[in-house]
């Protein structure tokens, strides 16, 4: 799922991936909410290469679905990395190496999936709401 408008760069990526990775990379375009769980369920790993957006619904959705995520090394993402919820990358070479590792190493992928689920559970809306209520009760 690619956020944002279709650009020439996206079109080049699509063409290259279809030629070099036939049957291994799908470009879905917009995915309606009711199909997101199915789409995430079909993914082995999720790559989040944004260099500008630090918090993303797509990134959090991937974690909530327990997916192994590789994301750009941004400040807001590092906290999740420290908690074992995802991997970060600093260069194209680093990204390539980590994608290959997660596709080949099922144990490493499972560890990230467990970390993603734990992060999502700890940060679920219900838990955050409970923490706010507890804080307000302490302050009153």
UniProtKB/TrEMBL annotation:
* One biological process term in Gene Ontology: lipopolysaccharide biosynthetic process
Molecular function (GO) terms listed?
Answer: glycosyltransferase activity
Q: Which UniProt keywords apply?
A: Transferase
Q: Which residues form a coiled coil?
A: none
Keyword hit for Cell division: no
| Keyword check for Transferase | yes
Q: Could you tell me which Gene3D superfamilies the record lists for this protein?
A: Glycogen Phosphorylase B
Record's protein name: Glycosyl transferase family 1 domain-containing protein
Question: What's the source species for this entry?
Answer: marine sediment metagenome
């Amino acid at each position: 799922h690619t956020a944002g408008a279709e650009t020439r760069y996206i079109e080049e990526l699509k063409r290259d991936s279809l030629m070099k990775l036939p049957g291994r990379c799908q470009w879905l375009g917009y995915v309606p909410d009711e199909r997101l769980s199915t789409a995430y369920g079909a993914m082995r790993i999720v790559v989040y290469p944004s260099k500008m957006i630090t918090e993303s619904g797509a990134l959090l959705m991937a974690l909530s679905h327990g997916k192994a995520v590789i994301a750009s090394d941004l400040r807001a993402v590092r906290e999740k990395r420290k908690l074992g919820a995802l991997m970060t990358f600093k260069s194209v070479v680093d990204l390539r190496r980590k994608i290959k590792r997660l596709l080949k190493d099922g144990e490493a992928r499972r560890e990230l999936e467990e970390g993603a689920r734990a992060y999502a559970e700890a940060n679920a809306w219900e838990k955050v709401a409970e923490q706010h209520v507890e804080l307000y009760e302490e302050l009153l």
